[in-house]
Amino acid sequence: MTDNSQSGTTHTLSDDRLIYLIVLCATWIWGHRLFESVWLDEALAYWTSSGSLYETVLRAFKYQGQSPLYYVILYFARLVAGNSEFGLRIPSVICTAASAIIVYRLGNLLLDRLSAISATGIFITLEGSTFAASNVRPYCLALLFSVASIYYLLLWLLKAKRRALLFYALTYLLAFYSHYLYGAVGLIHIVIFLTFKPRPSLNALKVIVILLAMAVLTSPGIYHLLYIHNRMNLLAVNGVITTYQLMTSVIRPYTPIILLLAYLYTIVVTPGKLYLKKAVKTLFSRKLSWILIWLLAPAPLLYLLSVLLSASSLFKEQYTYWTEPAAALVMATLISQIAPEKTKRTLIAIFIITATLFDFSRSIRTENYRDAVKYLSTIPSVDRTPLLYYSALVESQNVDWLKNKSHHDYLSAPLYFYRYQDPLILLPLAPASPESREYWKDKIEPVISSHITLTVMGSDIISFNDVEISNIFVNIFKQYGYKPVKIKHFGKVWVLRLKR
Known about the structure:
The chain is of the alpha/beta class. It has helices at 4-7, 15-31, 40-48, 53-64, 69-81, 85-110, 113-125, 127-133, 139-159, 164-178, 185-195, 204-230, 232-235, 243-250, 254-269, 276-283, 289-296, 298-308, 324-336, 341-358, 369-377, 399-403, 408-411, 413-417, 437-450, 469-478, and strands spanning 273-274, 338-339, 387-390, 424-427, 453-459, 463-464, 467-468, 483-490, 493-499. The chain contains 26 helices and 9 strands.
């Protein structure tokens, strides 16, 4: 095989130019999203880290049900970068950029330099990496350490690097404590270990000591997971996981479709061919077949876990984002079997440009709380009443939480982030449920009876029997003689104004 670091210099699209193109692509795809409105979960992350360091740790355990590692990092990041949307997302983009570098190193270790470049270019366009880079959530950190743990394990097994085993143990622990469900990457470690057996010369005692230390150090997190399981009746939301959700969590179609379009265009403008049989043979080789397990197994396993625990809320696409490097490596392997090399390089460039152009029509966030709060400030003061706020948070099904003022900033986190100062009253998750009747009578009906106009704000991120929650509230308030004057939508966020 020709050394790509040398051959790349003989082409117009050299390795360096492809890398510059990837950097420009990432700057656009990730960068412009850093200034968008926060959505619900981002606002919750901000609130978690908005108190003292002690409060940050406590809130992470109590409210987020997660390790405080990410929130502690966010706490210190806020002190440096401030509380703007951009400032809060800086740790995310840094972590995901570091993940891209590790993907490049993995590609170099398993394939070749040009394949490493193509894997990196693919990785930055994937939905999971784009989400991780541009959101105030712990997935960026968990993604970084999960892919790093795989890289260091391979480095230890394939290259016998002395410190790699120690770095492997450290990065796995950090992945686990970044997000507990990302600890499932340990299953892929077992597959890798069985695929590339350690060399006899390796120190077995050292390996055993490190593995025992890892087991001991993960035990606090496992204890916390058991505590969360005991609260599952509060945290779980009943729902049905569709076949489509499962399939798109295994293989997210956006980037593969763009790659296919780029390939079809490339072979029209440049002579070339994909040797598909050779590509499949390469993917199923001993050296790379474990990557297919990394890509395909996690989502079905998470689905089975959610079914066993009767908790559909456990199955979220974000919990499988640690498979994105595998998707990038699989697609890069296919590209590696295209000849001649000029066509291969042309495809990589066309793919990156196409992905950048397609990104103009791609939306990652669907909740625009910033503009919704701005709209609230335009309502004439004579029409202002206590805002009836529907958080859509699962905790709001617990009436005791709604009554306890210490929970109010958490339950109204987007309003807290955007400094909404006017009085508000929290609405229950299921407003028509029997459990909510007493709260509705004590807290909501006095407001209804004493005002001619009402303002209700919420989000349609959940629905009941396929009916959007905004329409449910329109029907509820009709029973009290109110008619909708205006409903303003900001993505899935809405502000409903009513009058009787």
